[in-house]
Amino acid sequence: MTLTDGRRPGSRVAADHVSLRRNNLSVVLRHVRDLGPRSRARIAEETGLNKATVSSLVAELVERGLLREGDADSSRALGRPGQLVELDGTGVCGVGAEINVDYLAVVALDLAGAVVHEKRVPVDVAHLGPGTTLDRLAELVQETVTAVEVSGGQLAGVTLAVPGLVQGETGELKLAPNLGWGELSVAEEMRARLGMPAYPLRVDNEANLATLAAYAELRDESLHDLVLLTGAVGVGGGVVTGGHLLRGGDGYAGEVGHMPVAPAGHACGCGRTGCWETVVGLAALLHKATDHDDPVRDPSLDVEQRLAGIVQRAEAGDARTLSALQDVGTWLGIGGAILVNILNPAALVLGGYFAVLGPWLEAPLEQAIRERVLAPDGGGCRIVRSDLGFAAAVRGGAQICLDLVFADPTIVNI
Amino acid sequence: MTLTDGRRPGSRVAADHVSLRRNNLSVVLRHVRDLGPRSRARIAEETGLNKATVSSLVAELVERGLLREGDADSSRALGRPGQLVELDGTGVCGVGAEINVDYLAVVALDLAGAVVHEKRVPVDVAHLGPGTTLDRLAELVQETVTAVEVSGGQLAGVTLAVPGLVQGETGELKLAPNLGWGELSVAEEMRARLGMPAYPLRVDNEANLATLAAYAELRDESLHDLVLLTGAVGVGGGVVTGGHLLRGGDGYAGEVGHMPVAPAGHACGCGRTGCWETVVGLAALLHKATDHDDPVRDPSLDVEQRLAGIVQRAEAGDARTLSALQDVGTWLGIGGAILVNILNPAALVLGGYFAVLGPWLEAPLEQAIRERVLAPDGGGCRIVRSDLGFAAAVRGGAQICLDLVFADPTIVNI
DNA sequence: TTAGTTTGTTGGATCAACAGACAAAGTCCG
DNA sequence: CGGACTTTGTCTGTTGATCCAACAAACTAA
Fold this sequence. Notes:
The structure is a homodimer of 414-residue chains. The first copy, chain A, is 42% helix and 20% strand. Chain A is built from 14 helices and 15 strands. Chain A has helices spanning 17-35, 40-47, 51-63, 125-128, 130-151, 186-193, 206-218, 277-280, 282-289, 303-315, 319-343, 353-356, 358-372, 392-407, and strands spanning 38-39, 67-72, 83-87, 92-99, 103-110, 115-122, 154-162, 165-166, 173-175, 201-205, 226-231, 235-241, 244-245, 347-352, 382-385. In chain A, the strands form four sheets. In chain A, strands 6-5-4-7-10 form a five-stranded mixed beta sheet. A five-stranded mixed beta sheet of chain A has the order 13-12-11-14-15, with helices on both faces. The radius of gyration of chain A is 23 Å and the shape is globular. In chain A, 51% of the residues are buried. At the A-B interface, helix 1, strand 12 and helix 11 of A face helix 1, strand 12 and helix 11 of B. The structure holds a DNA duplex (30 and 30 nucleotides).
């Protein structure tokens, strides 16, 4: 399974010998990634390819630095032991970079998903403005690219995560309300700052990339339909369905935070009333759980610390806190039920502050969903907490680059 | 583009010469379907395949009865005129059959989408019960299969449309509230009644199939992300995204009628309160627009006739009717905005009674969507009326069978 | 030590696409 | 009217990837 982003409908295209080979290289590489080290004979058996063909494919993948020979396989009792073939992470890296309201972040992952380099810098983006912010981000990316080169790996690409509407075809940023940015060609700006680099550089929605990261963690369990909900000041979301990220016609899909679910809700930052995030966003929780002058409401403090304060009160059994959490959990379930009715995901993944407060949100959430979903038993939807935290988007960005390699191993030079 | 139903994530699988050939046969066949009759040379140019290869592929497709040679191509001024190659509809047929609350229906479509046979029979399904209903349906299907055989075409398969939850993997019916049916293996029951036929027989959700039919009409305009909303007593829905039908983990996706959007809404047939269909279903419209004893509320009359009555009043400018339509249109837009925020479709297709009353529903619907969708201009979502009427589901069922042929032309015997 | 089992490679067969040459069938122009 | 030019579709030979069958290598079990 590729962590395919499904940007365009998969109209299969005319194929020749080269694409046949490319396809089978991809099949073998992903087979080893998903099922672990194994002998050539076993790969042949499991994929249906001929033994001779697998030998040839593995040889090419080894030459490209994507696979390597491991130990002898001692698991089968009889006969000549096989040579294990395993993923060689060190050959290639993908880079993810993120612009968010109060920080910039980068990560470089190798093919096996191991962190090669990472950095996170607190920055007041709204105050700095686009120009200076992108200057700073370009420095971080350049530093990461250099780190990848030093490590000896090839760079598969760089993906920028932005909290806003990114147009699907062009990758143009249309609107980023939380940054206070309007229309802006982030990709072009960054390419200019990076000296028109040769590697592919793409821009994507932050929540979509976080969703891909969550999917990458869960696909081992052959789970290919999920919804990610990230709780922050706003509420972000992303959908994977049938193993593909749901993008929609223009790439704006997954904007769950502004579903109109609460007609009597408060005013939303977007100018409307009744958006889901007005009842499940962090602001709504704090409003319900605390007084005006409570220190955990202080936006100048670190979000993690403020959340820790809430957790402490919940653990201590503070009635007001628990009631607020119950309330948010129920509203989470009302919106969640809408999502489950439409999308029938196998898992609802909680990220951001929803994950931190999961122990108190899950019970009312699950109950609200079961009560409101037509399919029996909530359509079999599991509630899962993501432990990726704030690194989700950058990891997803790096992984989308690596996925290009898994989809077409020939893009790696010998 | 295949009208692929995306039942399982598209993990590409090991390929050999045979699958290479199969793929290219499919590419040529779909190219002619989507872009119309053209010469071999032009197909080669447009697909990137070699001229010689296209000749060979076309020859095989002609032999299988899927393409045929047409007139000489007089469009290009210079040089030797080409021989046009066009779709040969007559070779293969797909069959769709539908069980619904008050009728059974069948249709047979040839490869070009032309109707070879169709029939619709009024039946009170809830009263008859599953056994007798399936007996009657089997008779209709057998009659249709015979008609296909008489017409000289090969039968690609039969798809049954059911208004209920159909499990994705097995095709088992889990629940059909409107029929009053519970868990039932419709496919097995029908296979037994049809004498264990050799052709593939599948079961699918009625709204999903209607959605595929709508997609088949719109994909010419390279529109690959849409939501269909069918208004009846209940509200059905289906989603195509990235050219694939959205099914979800268990195949229950698209149940938009029971999204909890109206906290203060009426009780729904499903036992909950506030489901979308309680404010946009036909019952809601009639409740708002008419008195208790109004003849258009009489469920014993034909739905089309009752709708004609509403249309007449709206055209005459009846204030109460217009106000009710305005109200339903706005509620349609509130739920529609949820769908557009999540799915970002390029089109919202109105089917069933929504299409009939489209002229009065569209304005408030469009306004409500624009007001509530985060993406500028409603994410560029068009409102489209479907003119397929009650034939949508059976057409989609037939087309899903034909699509198997477009995806793999070698399943047709020579 | 021998029989039996499994692995991975080798050489030849097969199959499908490709490249280039070429005849066929038309237009354009002097 | 005839030659130059253009385009189509077929034909022949080449290339390249997979498959098949045979086989040597490496190990276990008796």
